[in-house]
Amino acid sequence: MFRGLSAFPITPADPHGRVDIEALGRLVQRLVKAEVDSIGLLGSTGTYAYLSRAERRRAIEAAAGYSRGRVPLIVGVGALRTDDAQDLARDAKAAGADGLLLAPVSYTPLTEEEVFEHFLAVAQAADLPLCIYNNPGTTHFTFSDALIERLAKVQGIAAVKNPSPPAGEMRARHEALRAKVPASFAIGYSGDWNAPDAILAGGDAWYSVVGGLLPAPTLALLRAAQAGNAAEVARSNALFQPLWELFKALSSLRVVYAAADIMGICHAEPPRPLLPLPQAARQRLAAALESLDDGGR
Amino acid sequence: MFRGLSAFPITPADPHGRVDIEALGRLVQRLVKAEVDSIGLLGSTGTYAYLSRAERRRAIEAAAGYSRGRVPLIVGVGALRTDDAQDLARDAKAAGADGLLLAPVSYTPLTEEEVFEHFLAVAQAADLPLCIYNNPGTTHFTFSDALIERLAKVQGIAAVKNPSPPAGEMRARHEALRAKVPASFAIGYSGDWNAPDAILAGGDAWYSVVGGLLPAPTLALLRAAQAGNAAEVARSNALFQPLWELFKALSSLRVVYAAADIMGICHAEPPRPLLPLPQAARQRLAAALESLDDGGR
Questions:
Q1: Is residue B24 helix, strand or coil?
Q2: Residue A109 within any structural domain of the chain
Q3: Where residue A37 sits, what CATH number does that domain have?
Q4: Is the pTM here over 0.80, yes or no?
Q5: What does the alpha-carbon distance between residue A197 and residue A125 come to, in Å, rounded to a whole number?
Q6: Banded model confidence at residue B294, pLDDT cuts 50, 70, 90
Q7: Staple B21 to which of B62, B86, B119, B121, CB 3.0 to 4.6 Å?
Q8: Is residue B21 part of a domain?
Q9: Which of B109, B117, B251 minimises the CB distance to A275?
Q10: Which residues of A touch B83 (CB under 8 A)?
């Protein structure tokens, strides 16, 4: 389940945080039709941190209903409190999740021991495979390889979603971690603009924001990387370059909300205080999308 | 209200996040008896980020009941979502708060414009004076002087709680901001080990973690700083030095929970995933507390 393209859709919701189930269904159906390898529901892009427990459950039930077992559903269950994350993990299983994604959401900065105990408690709460969500840009906690090695020995912890290492360090960093964890433990990467190269360097999965909206061209790029075709990866990745520039400048989250609107898929805005893209950026985005043939549009 | 010693107590709660009203009452009564200038309820030390809306309201009602108007009650109303922070601000006013403390809690990193709009929306939601809670260590957002200048023009935004600048930069940094904001706008400081020097450099308030537990010696130190008595500040601050070392190494939050236990005030633990202090650190802490005569113990 933690291999290949894991596509992370937004979770369209109204200004009060009520999830728009029909719009979410359209996003999920696009991903099922494109045959992504998994759906990463309620990831950072899915604004899990901004949604109530009840709305998160509604979103999972709806996505499970639309995907109907055709694509594995990996669900983000991060929360500031350990007991809340345990409840969310149990909810996710009951609502139809196939796997869990857990980020060490923090307010008071966490120690390694606190993160270890937190993951242990959540892994024990729900009997589903769990992926460590290493996302320092939002959680402000960075997993050391030693902590991942320790967590990989815990029953149920099956994978890690790491930020893609900088170009030039990918193979060395990947192989250093690979040597510390069981062969069955999957090492995947996020950070869309670097992830294809991380797959070329041996990564097992691409946890992708753009894949949640444009699954067809993203899958084509991933398959080239999985085949070790560096030339095709470079050619295909160049088509995404204008989009990557916007992701880097304005955040992938804000950009994909606007892209879903421009593409006519849904008209949601990100949860306040996050603001929609300004008009000038929307025009640049529309041009960037032109170079990407989605097939399903 | 945003001047002098603002004392920040912990919010004792059970492992499920249910606030222990009687233990909170003991903490509040100590602060009232010591005549602190304000109580900073549900600050970072008060684990506001880890408590539900209902429990936050219970804590405010209880604290207002115990303080009975004798000491102004400043209440933390931070939340990831703007609408939630607005609801918390309305709740705080209804439950007896005299002022608000608002931190730009973030998951997706926020832009200056997003923080400005967020503060505007919360300031408009509740008709209470509001203090900007600039706490980059937990929110991962740093206010520029320019943004504080802009927010100081918003109706109801009356103060800022800044981290204490490094020694040597205090006066210059304080005066640079002072020149940008109205004379009525209060500039206070947190970071207990540097705050007395920030008061000597002109700061209007000390937002204090140790003051929430040991109000008498903290007030004595503050009054020396307010009187401009640098020699007495240095002498008094030296008594706190063993405690500051523990704050820096283990975080003030974890340390004051253990201190409240050692002093017999309450036996709560911080919310998981935060872990209580290990035994060796508790022994160092007990020794550090010996040098501080609390009076009220």
A1: helix
A2: yes
A3: 3.20.20.70
A4: yes
A5: 35
A6: low
A7: B62
A8: yes
A9: B117
A10: 15-17, 272
